[in-house]
Amino acid sequence: MTDFVYPSYFENFHKPGSVQFDRLKKVNRPFQILPGGYQIIFKNGKWSQIFGSAAKKKSFAKENRRGHRSEQRKRGHLLRADPKAIKRAEREG
Q1: Residue 29 in contact with residue 17, Cβ under 8 Å?
Q2: How many Cβ atoms are within 10 Å of 29's Cβ, its own excluded?
Q3: What is d(CA 20, CA 28) in angstroms, rounded to the nearest whole number?
Q4: CB–CB of 10/31 below 8 Å?
Q5: How far apart are the C-alpha atoms of 60 and 54, rounded to whole Å?
Q6: What is the pLDDT of residues 70-86, one digit of tens each?
Q7: Where are the alpha helices (DSSP H) in 8-74?
Q8: Separation of alpha carbons 40 and 60, rounded Å
Q9: Residue 45 CA to chain centroid, in angstroms?
Q10: Torsion angles phi and psi, residue 10, rounded to 5
C-alpha cells in the first residue's frame, strides 16, 4: 500500500509531531513533502509541482505523463472519463 495523508496534513495550525499526518507515520508536519514525493499546487492561477528532492524532480521529468490530470490542467480543462472505455478495460483486465 502507498502512503496517504490525513486531513490534519492540510491543517497548518498543528505543531510538528503533535498528530498523525499520514498513514505510514513518515510525515512530521503539515504540508511536508518527503524526498520521494511531490505535490501539485494551484497558485496565482497556474498549476505547478513541488518536489521533495532533486532526484524526484529528475525522475518525474522522465515519466510519460500523457493523459495524466497534470497534463490536462496545462491545457486548461480536465477530460471526462469514457464510460465505455472503462467497461471495456474492466472486461479485459
Answers
A1: yes
A2: 13
A3: 8
A4: yes
A5: 10
A6: 776 777 766 777 889 88
A7: 54-62, 69-74
A8: 12
A9: 18
A10: -95, 5
Measured in whole angstroms, the distance separating CA 71 from the mean position of its chain's CA atoms is 13
- Measured CA to CA, the distance from residue 18 to residue 29 in angstroms comes to 8
13 contacts 35 by C-beta, under 8 angstroms? no
**Closest C-alpha to 49, from 28, 75, 21, 70:** 70
- Give tens-digit pLDDT for 20-30: 999 999 999 99
Residue linked to cell 496517504: 4
- 77 φ/ψ angles, rounded to the nearest 5 degrees: -160, 150
Distances from the Cα of 75 to the Cα of 38, 50, 82, angstroms:
21, 19, 19
List helix spans (H) across 13-68. 54-62
Q: For residue 93, what pLDDT band results from cuts at 50, 70 and 90?
A: confident
